Amino acid sequence: MAKIRIKGITNRWLINSFGVAFVIIIGVLVFSSYSVKQYYYSGIEQSISGRSNELANFYGNNTTSKEFLTSAVGYVENFPDKNMMEIMVLDSNGDVVITSSGFENDDTKPIPDYEEAIASNNVYGKWTGKLSSGENVLSVTRVIYNLSGANVGAIRYIVSLEPANRQIFLNISFIFLGVLSVLFMTILSGAYFIRSIIKPAKRLTETAHYIAQGDFNTKIEKEYDDEIGDLCDAVNNMASELGAAEKMKNDFISSVSHELRTPLTAIKGWAETMQLSGANPDPYTMEKGMSVIIKETERLSGIVEELLDFSRIQSGRIVLIMERMDILAELDEAVYMLNERAISEEKHIIFNEPETVSPIIGDKNRIKQVFLNIIDNALKYSNPGGIINVIATEENGNIVIVISDEGQGIAKEDLPRVKEKFFKANTTVRGSGIGLALCDEIVRLHNGSLIIDSEKDVGTTVTVVIPTASNNQSGGKETQ
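^ that's the sequence the OP posted. Answer follows.
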């Protein structure tokens, strides 16, 4: 069986609302019709019953049927409400003796209420139905017994229900109109409410479409300070974040392209120079060219390896070979590897090395990679004559490495983002923008922390905190 699909929130809401409204209307009409009808019919029945009780109390002492009939005939003739109801006097056999209307009763027609009264213990019977004329009536019969318990006759009251039915119809009509009015107002207010959702939803859809096409500057206007408004804010924030990420990605691609192009240009230039030297190349030129090619090749290899490491971290595929190690040995080697460059750039690295510190559980190559990256950044952002201080201490079960410089520093607004991937506070200095993000992740995998403090035009301090082997919960296991 094919499943019927109703597209659109408005259509579904209208169908559901009208379905519920229809059930409510039917329920209210049925209940109100029954209640109003019972109210009017019960009122009429109680009025007639009261009169019959008075009559029974008055004529109940009659000892014979003849005496009852004589008194009852007088009662009928003097009955004050003949215009409101008809009265019949029946003898002990159930035959009609006299009616207040003056018309003879059709003896062929049964009298259900009389038969019920005779059969019941409370000598009272009622019947609702239509006469042969088609008139809808309510009839009540009260059988009269004398003191000895003999049936001396009965009084039957017949009341037309047509006026009551008209009143019932009017009341139900008013109730129906009232219910319709309430439902109409409810549906009207609901439609307005749905519209207040549909309209922003359509704008959200359009905005999402623009964002999907790369237009991250598009914004959606917030009209309501509610969940819809929060959703609008979330979409706008998403667009801003995607725009920032897109810009960061483009800057990263541009930066990496520049980083790759620079050594490639040097390699190509010296290779062409060496090729043009002919069969008898100048030894000095050859030596210098090969030196540049090797240096720039190593630089290219470092950039590619950094990108691969970042990719491994992003995908969770980085492998750390964890073992007990001397962190000072790796720090000392990193300082030694960059000291020659510092001298060539007229900068100074001062390493205050303690005699000894406790071993740690870590990956030697990755720890050294962190130190090389941080010291490399310190050199890049330091001016000639600048000093880079490297201090190692052991505090409270942690090895604390502090690397500080007197360089350009980082602006206050950029400081919280320097460990984000692709972010570069200074785009004029070479670098891919993923070095600190990579260092932060490596330190985190060693259960440590990397803290950066900086002030613009004053300098930057990077603190690496790694727990000692006795304080490390990793237990020296390999981590992937």
